[in-house]
């Protein structure tokens, strides 16, 4: 366990965005399904990405990292009859791979650690048995499957996570017949599903978007290829927020036209009053007077932590709503944000599906509980810019789940973070 001790300093300068964690997961999965040899680059070995890499190895692929390029040889993948996959804390790894192993008729037990053990999995335990798969699930991991997935019409709710839809999208093209996914509720994080479909297309597999879901032709094959991973807007958001409340920050290596839903952070910052400008593959944010407002967060749940900090720095009030799914992340993020903001002296109220935050000029020095949640730790590290004195944040090591070099980039921009091992 470690604590981040942060001395308040405004951040400024230029960094390169880390490669997208979401696209890296998807590229590894598609490379695995190609049953060929692929290179994926650049790659940052976050804990979540390592969970997918280790799962690929368990499934029989040879995976090596050479000079920042991930080489995946999947010619011997999917040949085992029985496997156990430890997904660590990665929900993407777990929910992407369950339908995939079922498509190959592999009997598998999926395990995990920390809060992943109790994150909701009922969608699969209810749907998959209707299509030839036996599931064993007692409300917590392990989640075991046996039998071969059959094609058909899959009705699925989007109340919890888009990852269930993405998992089915990966698997259904491999089946001997055509399938359809029908979304029975409004799709929340639709951007993540679009990213899945785009990555599949890049590897030679096509699906058709319909008014209510997707049509998926069967008997398709993934094609091996080399794949360049674009920069991560979800991680970039933290430093763009620092530019809005400190001094100008430029982030290179991001695609302004990305399918990543979290690219909307640039629009939200501009709407709050920050100065936002784009180059060919970069974005710069400079501070201006920020004003609060209403933010509907159903499609951008990963931005809520940094938006909460921005709201606390803006004039007036900020209402974040439509964020109920944050209760089922690495922590209950609504409660985690409420506790941290209260600790900083912010006037904040937790609602059923979000937060009501009243802005102020400075934060009190405080000891913040990071709740072993990477996005909570990173959000309050940005809040430290506006603190009167040093801020301590527990569970600093949790950033390794998604952005291991976060504190390194923070200090490159002039920050002062010391991570103390306890």
Beta-strand content bin: 15-25%
Low-confidence runs of at least 5 consecutive residues: none
Q: Which outline best applies?
A: globular
Mean pLDDT value: 96
- Main sheet: which strands, in order across? 22-23-1-24
Number of helical regions: 12
Structure description:
By secondary structure, this protein is of the alpha/beta class. The chain has twelve helices and 24 strands. It has a four-stranded mixed β-sheet.
Question: What's the structural blueprint in terms of helices and strands?
Answer:
Blueprint: E1 2-7, E2 13-16, H1 21-34, E3 37-41, H2 47-58, E4 62-66, E5 69-73, E6 82-86, H3 91-103, E7 107-111, H4 122-127, E8 134-136, E9 143-146, E10 153-156, H5 163-171, E11 179-183, H6 190-202, E12 208-209, E13 213-216, E14 227-228, H7 233-245, E15 249-252, H8 265-272, E16 275-278, E17 282-286, E18 294-296, H9 304-313, E19 317-321, H10 333-343, E20 347-350, E21 355-358, E22 367-368, H11 374-383, E23 391-394, H12 406-412, E24 416-421
Parallel strand pairs: 2-15, 3-14, 6-7, 10-11, 18-19, 22-23
Antiparallel strand pairs: 1-23, 1-24, 3-5, 4-5, 7-9, 8-9, 11-13, 12-13, 15-17, 16-17, 19-21, 20-21
Short description:
The protein has 422 residues and is an alpha/beta fold. It has twelve helices and 24 strands.
Descriptive key words:
single chain; 422 residues; alpha/beta; four-stranded mixed β-sheet; 12 helices; 24% strand
């Amino acid at each position: 366990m470690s604590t981040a001790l942060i001395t308040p300093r405004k951040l400024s300068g230029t960094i390169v965005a880390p490669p997208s964690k979401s696209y890296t997961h998807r590229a590894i999965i598609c490379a695995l399904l190609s049953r060929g040899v692929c290179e994926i680059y650049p790659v940052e070995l976050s804990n979540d990405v390592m969970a997918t890499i280790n799962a690929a190895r368990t499934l029989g692929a040879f995976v090596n990292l050479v000079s920042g390029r991930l080489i995946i040889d999947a010619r011997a993948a999917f040949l085992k009859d029985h496997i156990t996959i430890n997904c660590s804390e990665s929900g993407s790894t777990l929910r992407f791979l369950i339908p995939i192993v079922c498509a190959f008729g592999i009997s598998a037990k999926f395990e995990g650690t920390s809060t992943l053990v109790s994150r909701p999995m009922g969608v699969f335990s209810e749907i998959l048995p209707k299509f030839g798969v036996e599931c064993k699930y007692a409300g917590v991991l392990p989640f075991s499957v046996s039998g071969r997935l059959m094609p058909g019409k899959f009705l699925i709710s989007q109340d919890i996570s888009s990852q269930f839809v993405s998992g089915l999208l990966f698997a259904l093209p491999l089946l001997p017949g055509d399938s359809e996914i029908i979304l029975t509720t409004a799709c929340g994080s639709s951007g993540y599903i679009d990213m899945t479909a785009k990555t599949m297309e890049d590897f030679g597999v096509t699906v058709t978007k319909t008014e209510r879901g997707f049509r998926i032709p069967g008997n398709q094959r993934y094609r091996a290829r080399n794949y360049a991973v674009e920069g991560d807007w979800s991680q970039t958001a933290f430093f763009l927020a620092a530019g809005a409340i400190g001094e100008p920050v430029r982030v290179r290596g991001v695609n302004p036209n990305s399918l990543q839903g979290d690219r909307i952070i640039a629009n939200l910052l501009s709407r709050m009053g920050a100065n936002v400008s784009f180059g060919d593959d970069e974005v710069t944010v400079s501070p201006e007077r920020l004003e609060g407002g209403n933010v509907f967060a159903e499609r951008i749940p990963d931005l809520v932590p940094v938006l909460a900090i921005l709201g606390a720095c803006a004039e007036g009030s900020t209402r974040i709503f439509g964020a109920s799914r944050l209760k089922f992340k690495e922590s209950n993020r609504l409660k985690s944000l409420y506790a941290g903001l209260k600790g900083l002296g912010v006037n904040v109220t937790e609602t059923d599906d979000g937060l009501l935050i009243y802005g102020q000029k400075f934060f009190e020095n405080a000891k913040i509980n990071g709740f072993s949640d990477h996005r909570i730790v990173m959000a309050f590290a940005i809040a430290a810019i506006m603190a009167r004195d040093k801020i301590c944040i527990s569970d600093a090591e949790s950033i390794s789940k998604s952005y291991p070099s976060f504190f390194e980039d923070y200090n490159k921009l002039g920050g002062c973070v010391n991570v103390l091992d306890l």
